[in-house]
Amino acid sequence: MVAAAERSVETLAINAIRTLSMDAVQAANNGHPGLPLGAAPMAYVLWTEFLKHNPRDPHWPDRDRFVLSAGHGSMLIYSLLHLTGYDLSLDDLKNFRQLGSKTPGHPERLHTPGVEVTTGPLGQGFANGVGLAMAEAFLAARYNRPGHEIVDHRTYAIVSDGDVMEGVANEAASLAGHLKLGKLIYLYDQNQITLAGSANLSFSEDVAARFEAQGWHTQTIDGMDTTAVRDALDQARTETGRPSLICARTVIGFGSPKKAGTFGVHGSPLGPDEVAATKENLGIPLDPPFYVPAEAQAKFDEGLDRGAEAQAKWRMRFEAYAEAHPDLAAEFTRALAGELPDGWDSDLPSWNVGDKPVATRKASGETIAKFFPKLPNFVGGSADLNPSTNTAMKNAGDFQAPNADQNGAQGLTGGGWSYAGQNVHFGIREHAMGSAVNGMAAHGGLIPFGSTFLVFSDYMRPAIRLSALSHLKSIWVFTHDSIAVGGDGPTHEPVEHVMSLRAIPHLRVIRPGDPNEAVEAWRAALTHDGPTALILSRQDLTVLDRSRARGDLSRGGYILEEADGAPAIVLIGTGSELELAVMARGVLAEHGISARVVSLPSWELFAEQDVSYQEEVLGAAGTPRLSVEAGVTLGWCRYTGERGASVGVDTYGASAPGEEVLKAYGFSKEHVAAEALRLLGRDDLADQVEPPRTGGETAGEQAEGAEGHS
Asked: β-strand 184-190 against 155-160: which pairing, if any?
């Protein structure tokens, strides 16, 4: 009798999830009702019996993390959050997908209490979860001590057919299997339906076999059977050496007489008549809408005390830990708060005028070497490009499963293999790297970064965009920043990439112009609460004279070299082209033209300054301005203004030694000076500075728009 009564309440609770979900979608007349209807049983079991969380404190550090990777089914998580006691009211559910509501179409971090990561593009949440599990493993290895386990939680997710099809999920699964992330457990909602039809129209692989080959523990169950779900989760929790995938066969749109099991219920409301028929089929009262039986709500409410008790026990453990290990406890608390320790930047490197030229990627590496020992939560790596991006941290350890077989592995950075290693070897997986870094940032307690060549930021764009949308402190290190890459040719020479990154709202892009600006770029990135993209050179850059500078990188743009007298023109440089602007100033001075040189490494930081400062740097409206940057000129009119022009690259690069490519594309002091003179209407002087070429065209002239005048 007790079992039957419990089963009855369980059914009521599961149907409450379904009711709230389909009524909200219907009220909005927009959304995806099919997944919540089918996945409700396994979501109910996970959230009420396995998930360690406290709805009264969504930010409790040792809570389990949950990701709804199938973000289109967002009403599932909103229903769960409301029912389990998070600050999400019934009115919030009724305003699903409405302007200003706390229930947007796809879950958004910092927007809805209890949502850990922003999931929308399929596969991103799957890969974010891998980053969340990596963060837990790192923090546990770094801070736990015998008898004092203050970091001990799991990462769960519900993923869909669409998620496991996406390439980013495959990369992330491969990485998770290699790292043996045993606290990572995914429920695969295997309803075999996608938006456009049944999944077997395009997807017929053995998913379990694929994941097993990648080092995962897999199970296949009936996802509509709550007993099977419980047993599978129990088994997954006992598997500590591998991540777990539970392939749970479900029925999309369960209960709908006409639409269950069809793609018609994937991305469209049921319609009033089918909502009524579904409720009748499931034994749910038609009215009122958004109905939750008292017995069902009482069942969900039981979790409130359990969550509070679990957090209280953790707090007692942490107090004992703080008494036994006060320094570690203080460090852990500071890391969770996102605070930097005093003196972290006290001995950063610097370079003097006359020192040997240094590539900004190398200056970046030397900067990292100075600060990382003071930032034990600074964690990251590259997509198999450490020797090129200069991001490896010597003797900081390699983030690997502690019991992994090294099997003759080469290229280690020293310090041993463990989950406490600060060097992450992402492998040639830019997609997964970007999303995993976001997961680590969302977890809290870490300052994560990922690095690769700038041209491969294209592979990472969805993750970079989501880092900005989610206000994550993800740091992106991109090197080999222009056509100066040279011999590898146009496939490896970024042209449009810096400007395309600047187009992402809330992403801070910094392109330092010499080694000292590279140091300042890192200071700006580490003290910023949002994402930063550092754009670094492969080629060596001259250490520039700052004795006459007015300002620095912290304001985004500043006067590096003032004109002798009133400036006739302002030369604006970034990155490796800043030196060209300085040299062109000298050429102009020889012809009696006074020029100011402005360094503009970060448009975003500069845009934050008041208008008076911007005009102080760039000159008043109408001032002739010439930008110099080895990339597309699109967008530079924002700062060159009504009497402006640009020297840039509006085509693709070429394969040749980098210096030859730069020269062919007009990146010489003579060409920059000549363009400045032409802007001033001094074509006569321009032809003296850079005589018309004869005897054949260069590669740059052959390429349409290569010099990028605007």
From this structure: parallel
What tens digit of pLDDT does each residue of 642-663 get? 999 999 999 999 999 999 999 9
The secondary structure of 662-693, three-state, reads HHHCCCCHHHHHHHHHHHCCCHHHHHHHCCCC
- Domain-embedded: residue 547: no
Question: Does residue 653 sit within a domain?
Answer: yes
Shared-domain flag, residues 377 and 258: no
State the average pLDDT for the chain.
95
Domain of residue 681: give its range: 553-702
Q: Are residues 479 and 557 in the same domain?
A: no
Tell me if residue 171 is catalytic.
no
Task: Specify whether the CB–CB gap between 33 and 279 falls below 8 A.
Answer: no
Task: Catalytic residue, from 171, 430, 579, 707: name it.
Answer: 430
What was the pLDDT predicted at 705? 41
pLDDT tens readout for residues 108-134: 999 999 999 999 899 999 999 999 999
Q: What is the DSSP string of 522-548?
A: HHHHHT-SS-EEEE--SSEEPPPP-TT
pLDDT (tens digit per residue) in 148-187: 999 999 999 999 999 999 999 999 999 999 999 999 999 9
Number of domains composing the chain? 3
The answer on 129 and 172 residing in a single domain is yes
Rg of the chain taking only CA atoms, in angstroms: 29
Is the pLDDT at 708 greater than 70, yes or no? Answer: no
Give the largest Cα separation in the chain, rounded: 101
Same domain, 420 and 293: no
